[in-house]
Amino acid sequence: xxxxxxxxxxxxxxxxxxxxxxxxxxxxxxxxxxxxxxxxxxxxxxxxxxxxxxxxxxxxxxxxxxxxxxxxxxxxxxxxxxxxxxxxxxxxxxxxxxxxxxxxxxxxxxxxxxxxxxxxxxxxxxxxxxxxxxxxxxxxxxxxxxxxxxxxxxxxxxxxxxxxxxxxxxxxxxxxxxxxxxxxxxxxxxxxxxxxxxxxxxxxxxxxxxxxxxxxxxxxxxxxxxxxxxxxxxxxxxxxxxxxxxxxxxxxxxxxxxxxxxxxxxxxxxxxxxxxxxxxxxxxxxxxxxxxxxxxxxxxxxxxxxxxxxxxxxxx
Length: 316
Ligand SMILES: Nc1ncnc2c1ncn2[C@@H]1O[C@H](COP(=O)(O)OP(=O)(O)OP(=O)(O)O)[C@@H](O)[C@H]1O
Ligand SMILES: [Mg+2]
Prior knowledge:
Layout lengths: L15 H9 L5 H5 L3 H8 L3 H14 L7 H9 L3 E2 L4 H6 L4 E2 L3 E6 L5 H11 L12 E6 L6 H10 L4 H6 L1 E5 L3 H17 L3 E7 L3 H6 L6 H22 L2 E6 L1 E3 L9 E3 L2 H7 E9 L4 E7 L7 E8 L2 E4 L1
Parallel strand pairs: 3-7, 3-10, 4-5, 4-6, 6-7
Antiparallel strand pairs: 1-2, 8-9, 10-11, 11-12, 12-13
Bound molecules: adenosine-5'-triphosphate (ATP) and magnesium ion (MG).
């Protein structure tokens, strides 16, 4: 039997120099290598295509990519946790709350309340299970420098929680580039392996660095490939660690759309297919906010109306 493969340097033919090149090229985890194409791996680390193929196969074998029985799948779903959003209307829309084992994406224009959702979830994940939480901790990857502990404190008070304790259970990492964001995500995985009470990973925002770093039209394919690897890493993390993953995403204008909504979330199908639950956030009449469920594989489409207040998200 082949030696156990736990890290990149365990892969066949990957020495320290190749490992360094792979990490610098954005292949920082076995997952990302498992879903790479032989050509991109070969050009990143200077392998021949045949060795790249061998390396990818080894990474896939190490990750047990394959089938499971429907019985296993049901047992896994029974372990699923749901985290309340603090409002009945959104919880009902989501079938109970933000669920573990998959990615939940909130997207919308600036000021539509995406970051407020993140602050809210930082607190509600810490609630006891009978109050709609997971009695868990959270890792918060902040790529836009918009994390505000005061907001978490205000929301903690609404639930009668000790703000100091709540803040201690939120580990914040500021991501300066897309690669840094990916490294922090790998770190989050390590933290989850050490501390099983981490039940939520937040990435606010998922796409801003990718968008800023790959600007030209000619770079779109590279950006999408990298984003694809990243989404895969997040999905795998949600599934293997039974944690919830909440990501935010911006919208771009679509000049080609003449009727209906002229905006679309960044990342196209790559992000759309990886996010199992997608919510489009917008402002409604007066101080109301609207969250619309988009393309859910098993929940009916619908909208929830709520307010964003100093206490966080509340029913209207
Ligand atoms: N303390 C507060 N009390 C009441 N409402 C607040 C408070 N803080 C923020 N808000 C509301 O949240 C809105 C900002 O939302 P948020 O920062 O979540 O937007 P966003 O979607 O993350 O935007 P961006 O794309 O710029 O990151 C404000 O316009 C305001 O309506
Ligand atoms: Mg924001």
